[in-house]
Amino acid sequence: MPVTRSKATVTDITLTQTVKVEKPRAARKAKVNGKIVSKASKGNRNIEHLFALAEVPKDLSLPSEFEAYHDSRFIEGVKHILSIDPTLYPVVVHSKFRAFSNEDKPIQSERDTILHYWYALISSVIGQQVSGSAAKAIESRFSSSFEGKPTPEKTLLKTDEELRAVGLSKMKAKYVRHISETFAQPGELTSLAFYSTPKEDVIKGLTQLMGIGEWSAKMFAVFTLRELDIFAFDDLGVARGVART
Description:
Belongs to the alkylbase DNA glycosidase AlkA family. One of its GO terms (biological process) is base-excision repair, AP site formation. Residues 122-244 form the HhH-GPD domain. The protein is mainly alpha-helical. Helix content is 46%, strand content 10%. It contains 12 helices and 4 strands. Helix 5 (110-126) packs antiparallel against helix 9 (170-183) and helix 10 packs across helix 11. It starts with a strand and ends with a helix.
């Protein structure tokens, strides 16, 4: 039955507004390894709770779809990690890692590959100290501000005001300009041979760029160069996770 409440009173006349009282919605359900569990709202989803309920196979065998999707080297690394710490199983198989899929990558020219590396570093700078959604929005505005594909040369033609207009801070605009200057001229970082050197040398070389610290260089090595033997022990998230174990 509708419930009424007073909205406003003018002299002796009371105006009322009809308000519908809805029954609380039942909690949504999710199935985790055959078990029905309550699914928290989007803003309060407790992923750790779901992980805790996930069943880990005794032989640590990976789901067939997971193995089929990923590169064999990645799968080998995952199995090694799980053999050391099986509690990571639910976290690992929870989603796919696109950077390590076994899908055939289109063959690119050396120039296109170097441009890909440049843009990955620019994207890294954009994403520093902002939320994921903010970084995505800023990167979208940055990319859309060019006619055609973004390049270091086109970036250098932009004024600081234009770079700031897409959402970059004054310091990040400076970093983007410096990285673009480096990639706009022949040098160590614009040679594919450099990226085939030992990963320690690559990381050291990348940290010479303004705005690229050791953590950013390591993430570049992992997600852009697809290096597997990298561990960001200085990552704050990793440190906090280890401290909780």
